[in-house]
């Protein structure tokens, strides 16, 4: 039997090579977000080289930035902001969106109508424009960024969860639970949520990618993480002048963003079908 190049068999079990490699990249960046500054060869904010936009060397594996700071150390610092802010925002967005979506599907009536129309109106605003206006009006800080990013992606999570919950709500086992007198909370937590958990987790991974890209875009425009701290988008903005010199200072954070987002996408694409697509 032919076997896909992306998978192999080991001791009778099929191993998805792409999913494993993607998981390793994700785990690496998760570890760097937690402990990266401990492994940084230099202080992220310290000028350690008088040659700005310095080349790759043994002392500076990714070169130096426009002030002579070590790029590797700053990327490791930026991982905590990029991954941390994006993860907090996607958890908040998906938790609120899924909870509201299931509640709307189970209760129906005017609650469903009001929630759906309000979140539809919110989702009609371009995400980057909404983020720019809110951050410019309120000010850029980590809590504000998390809240704004969560608000932007809650409507999409709500629509996705509601569509899944509506299908589950019409099934016989839910009708039986309702007939024996179970309340709304029981139906949501015991009957509907377990049956939509797989697709919701896959959707959460995709929204994490969207949030990473939007956060990086806001930072590139100067409205994200503020100096002296920096996420990966801020590092690209700071070192955009390195393009003229062919220095790695602007390429390295771009590769970091790409490696994280592509790895998450590949992992989602290679999840087992029964996990990614299960809706009953």
From TrEMBL:
PROSITE patterns: ABC_TM1. SUPFAM superfamilies: MetI-like. Keywords: Cell membrane, Membrane, Transmembrane, Transmembrane helix, Transport. It is found in: Cell membrane. It comes from the Bacteria. Residues 79-268 form the ABC transmembrane type-1 domain. Belongs to the binding-protein-dependent transport system permease family. This is ABC transporter permease. It comes from Paralimibaculum aggregatum.
